[in-house]
Design goal:
globular, mainly alpha, two-stranded antiparallel ribbon, disordered N terminus, 491 residues
Amino acid sequence: MADKAMYSPVKAANAANVAPISGSSEGISLKPKITLLNGITVIVGSIIGSGIFVSPKGVLQYTGSVGLFLLVWLLCGVFSTIGAYCYCELGTMIQRSGADYAYIYEGFGPLLAFIRLWVECIIVRPCSQAIVAMTFGIYILKPFYPDCPPPDSSVRLLAAVCIIVLMFINCMNVAWATRVQDVFTFAKLFALGMIIVTGIVQLCRGHTEYFADPFAGTETNIATAALGFYSGLFAYNGWNYLNFVIEELQDPVRNLPKAVSISMVIVVLVYLLTNVAFLTVVSPAEIISSPAVAVLFADRLYGPMAWIMPVMVAMSTFGTVNGILFTSARLFYVGAREGHMPEILTMIQVKLLTPMPAVLFMGTLSLLYLGSSQIYALINYVSFVCWLAIGMAVFSVIWFRWKWPDAPRPIKVHIIWPIIYTLGSIFLVVLPCISAPKDTGIGAAILLTGFPVYYLFVWLDKPAKINRMLDSFTLAMQKLMIVVPETKKTD
């Protein structure tokens, strides 16, 4: 039996003195359990959510023609792949979880890294998870409400169940969480494969009327067409998620670039072929007006089996919720490790070796946002902040070439790629300032709230009384969850 002292609450400062479990020399830490296959499913499963199933109208309504519509999907995939390629250099050079948070921290200091973490923590991650979980609820109920929207209360309740189930899985076992990601990624690829195969059959039958004059009606206003590019890139969001858990990836120098290259090829091909398949059955006007293109596609071709499509969409979103929770917990864990979040979030469950406090924190925030009617607006407000942070992280590739010219770089990208991506990111930050200045202004105000928070809670020394209260809270949570700070491997 393990000694009782091993489970005593400990401060992070004393973490090195904690005895390993059962006399093991491995210490208490998050273990590298993510294989190459797991890495691929983390990326693919996080990128492919409900958007491609529900409606790619965001791209089509701004491009105006089938030809430009497909070209934008391809260019968005290429642009995202460039970003992922640059992150391979960063992830193998700075092997710390947290992705752009870690890279901004190393390149531009703790203040800007905290601002990135602040926006992710209070809005982006919990809101995104709540929205995807609600989409899960909608499509689980779709077969029972074929002619009308399901009740909002039922949708939110199912969304809450989805989040709670995944919180339990992620708290109990890292392998369970990666297995869920694997299974549901394969499920969504199977669903998209059905659509693609059906589309190929339709093409062989001669259903090519919407491809006859592919560039007819192309949008000539460059600013408007650019909005289509902006919409398309959101469908590729998630290509950097493996970098958030890089410390748990086995042999990252070998597996990170392999996972990225395989994943991005899969996603780009699947997106292009799925949109081609849709256009063999559904007209461009119907794509723009339909609330769910995949469901309309299935209704027309699958007859009594059409119900399978909303179920597949629900399965797809379930996997995406898991991917967001899995990676977000690691982001908050790393932020707490740097002193940017409460100390309890640095703790690891001593038997399960999972970041239980960070998982529960992320899940609880998402559950709270389920009670809000403004979550979609909040995401829109801070969308430009995401591109600003990712652009800064990719720019750090250039910055580190000057700052650390002799640092070991297992993967070294050509300098032209981070330059292209940085310029593209500037465009993506400026575009919403022009097209939606009010929303961008609100987003900037939300971002600026991070500065006083950093000053008050991170930079300033807290009064002794406040420190004692925080210590008491941390110790109480440690006792409740049986968690301790990470300890290093001992000889």
